[in-house]
Every structure is written in structure tokens, then in C-alpha cells.
Amino acid sequence: MLKAIPERARLSCAEKKGCEGVASNAGKITAREWAAIISVAAAAFIFNTSEFMPIGLLVDISADFGVNEATGGILITAYAWAVCLLSVPLMVATSRFSFRPLLLAVVGVFGVGQLCSALAPGYFPLMGARLIVACAHAIFWSIAPSIAARAVSLEHRSIALSAIVTGSSIAQILGLPLGRVIGLALGWRMAFACIAAFTVALLVVLFFAVPKMSAGEPFKVSQLPSLVKNPVLLSLFVGTAVIATAYYTGYSYVEPYLQQIGGLSDEAITTSLMMFGVAGVIGSFLFARFYVGKRRRYWYIRVSLAGVALALALMMPAALGGMGSVLAVFVLWGICGVSFNVAYQSEILRFAPPHAAAVATAIYSGIFNLGIGGGSAVGGAVSTAFGMGSVCFAGALIGAAAVVIACVFLIPAMRRTRPVE
Q: Which listed residue, 51, 139, 260, 355, has the most CB atoms within 10 A of its CB?
């Protein structure tokens, strides 16, 4: 297989003694490399916990500031759109900085945003604090995959990337419920304060665990068209917008969907939603195990995208069939959702030019958040016009379009295009 990690990530220890973030023992991952991977995965956990947490605290936050839940929900929408709009500009602006100090600075800003959230005296100051966190989020998810990939040798890249996704998935299992428990017991402000305190400890760990990594050549805005001209990257970006929209068309309304269509209790819905996180962890392990070889990669992408569309199509009979069938569909949905996500990030690192890998990942992150907002908007429009029962069918149709894009455009482009040497 041709090497695809950006050139800065592929210096061998034979070529450069004391090389940056590359395994010195090609046969196994060293303890130092595991420390780097786990610490970045912990950062992924805390970043995604912060993103999801306001969903579980929305009622309390809205009541505290005297606004309705629709107005309170703008906190979530504004966060996603801010990440979408800021990912590329912030990554271009910071591309001249080395990854390690940039990571530490981003996590520091993230902690400040959490503290400001905990101390916010009103709704709009809280909105401003959340936008600070969104800026940190935009840069973090632009550099986290590259840092994880560069912390190990090429043969272990899939393990490093799957670890980052595992941290994100565990946030859905433990982070969101834990934040809700703290918020209900001590108030929503304390939930943000706890994340701020955890961030301080995480900064110390990252300082010692993440190796130094060179900055490389700064990215220029004039180089953006070259990324769009790459047929693989263009197909990945378009496909990401479509499949993320499909995913969040259904996921954004899964709670009222299960209530209204399936008649599930609050406890059953909470248990079902946690299955997404469990399935995500399973999906990350499957990626690390099976995402090798050209033929496997092609089939892995097809199956993961088709699985998301199929899960959305099966939601109506699953909801009518009871909790057992819902859990089964959620396992399929969660595994395939994580699988396409990490597979697409892997291909971006494989085909992006060395100087543009982080910016290409930033574009991916921005487009994914565009899909989050777009899916929520589509789901809302469909539920209003045709009823809640039509939401997941709409998502399935959009998901089918993503499968077509992958089969007709992405995979043929991957076959024709030479990965970055």
C-alpha cells in the first residue's frame, strides 16, 4: 500500500534520530505512543462531551434565563454553524504553528470557554462563551486526526484514528449522561465548571504525552482550489455533506420519534440512545481491524454508508416492534455511522497534499457540522409537513444518495488517483 500520511509524519528513525511522533519500533506501539494516543482520545472525549452536554441541560438552562426551549436550542445550532464556518479560516490562520503548542493552546482556550459558560450572567454571555468553545472545537477536530496519525508508524495509523473515535463515542455513553447527572444534582453551571477543571488536568497530561511535531509549510488561501480539484477529496467532501445530513435528519429527532411512533418510555429512550455510543466503540474497533487493503477499504466504505441508510429505513418497523428491535437498529446505525466517519478521515489523510492535510481535515469537520445543521433543518421541515413518522424515511433517501456518490464518484476516483507518497 502506498504511504498516505503527510510527509512530515513519515520520517523514519533511521533517517532522523529522535524523530517526531513516529514509531521507533515498527513492530508494536510503544508506551510513549500509547500515551499520546490515549491523551488525545481523552481530549476527544471531553470536547464531544461539551458539545453534547447542553442537549441534556437545555430545559434547566432555558428556565434559568427565562427563555423558551426553542430559544435555548439556538445555543446548540449556533455552536454547530460556528464550527462549520470557522474550521477552515482558523486552520489556515494557525497552519504555521507546530501541532503540539497549537493543541495545548486550543485545549486552554476550550477550558476558558467552559469557565466562562459556568459564570455566564445571562443568555447572550453564555452564547458568547459557547462560541469561544466552538472556536477551540473547530481547530481541535482539524488537527486531532493528524496528531494521532503522526504519533505512530504508518502501519498503526488505523489504531490511532480508531482510538480518537472511541473517545468521541464514549462521550455519548458516559459524557452526556454524566453531565446531565451533575447538572440535575448541582446545577447546570457546575457541569460546565467540572469540564473546566478536567481540562486543566488534561492540559498537564497532553504537555508530557504528546511529542513535538514540526509546523511544516504554512497553508495559503490561494491553495484551497487545489484541494477541490482533487477528485478524491472533492468526492469525500460532497459525500460527507450528504451522509451527515442523512444521519442527523433522523438522529436530531430520534427522541420525539421514539416517543410518538414507538411509545417508548423516557428510561427506554435513554438506554437506546446510549447504545449509539456502545455501537460507536464497536465500530472503531472494527475499523482498526478491517480497514486495510484496497479491496477492503472500498467495501468498507460501501457497507458503512449503506448501513446508515438501511438503519434509517428500518426505524419505523423497529419503533413499532419495541425496544429490542430499536436496539438492534441502533447498533447497526451506530457502528456504520462511526465507520464511515473514521474511514473518510483516513482517506483525507491518505490523499491530501502534505502541506494541506490539516486544512483538508478542517474542511471535512466544517462540512460535517454543516450536515448536522442541515439534517436538523430537513428533519424539522419534514416532521412539520408530513409528520414525525416521515423523518427517518427522508434520512434514508438522503443516505441512499450518499451511497450512490461513493459508488459512482468516490471509489472510482480512489482507484484512479495515486495516494500521496
A: 139
CB atoms within 10 A of CB 293: 11
Residue where the block lists cell 513535538: 212
**C-alpha distances in angstroms, 64 versus 25, 131, 179, 182, 336?**
55, 20, 17, 16, 38
**Residue 113, exposed/middle/buried by CB under 10 A (0-12, 13-18, 19+)?**
buried
Neighbours of 138 (CB within 10 A): 24
The CA distances from residue 79 to 87, 173, 250, 306, in Å, are 12, 21, 19, 29
Mention every residue, 6+ apart, whose C-beta is less than 8 A from residue 155.
26
| Cα angle, residue 68 at apex, residues 48 and 131 outer, rounded to 5° | 35
Is 82:138 a contact under the CB 8 Å cutoff? yes
CA proximity to 406, closest of 238, 221, 188, 192: 238
- Residues across the chain: 421
Distance CA 237, CA 221 (A): 18
Q: 84: buried, middle or exposed (CB in 10 Å: 19+, 13-18, 0-12)?
A: buried
Q: Which cell goes with 179?
A: 453531565
CB 362 within 8 A of CB 142: yes
Helix (H) or strand (E) segment spanning residue 115: helix 99-119
pLDDT tens digits, 210-260: 988 776 566 666 677 778 889 999 999 999 999 999 998 888 788 788 888
| Torsion (CA) 283, 285, 290, 291 in degrees, nearest 10 | 70
Q: Find all residues with CB under 8 Å of 28, minimum gap 6, and list them.
A: none
Distances (CA, A) of 110 to 47, 103, 119, 130, 237: 8, 10, 15, 9, 27
Contact 83, 134 (CB under 8 A): yes
d(CA 152, CA 163): 12
* Set of cell numbers at residue 287: 475499523
At 312, list the grid cell: 434509517
Predicted TM-score (pTM) of the model is 0.75
Grid cell in block for residue 12: 523514519
370-393 pLDDT tens trace = 888 788 788 888 888 898 899 999
Place of cell 469537520: 365
Helix H, strand E, coil C: the string for 179-198 is: HHHHHHHHCHHHHHHHHHHH
Provide the grid cell at 395.
434520512
- Within 8 A by CB and 6+ apart from 241, the residues are 367, 370, 371, 374
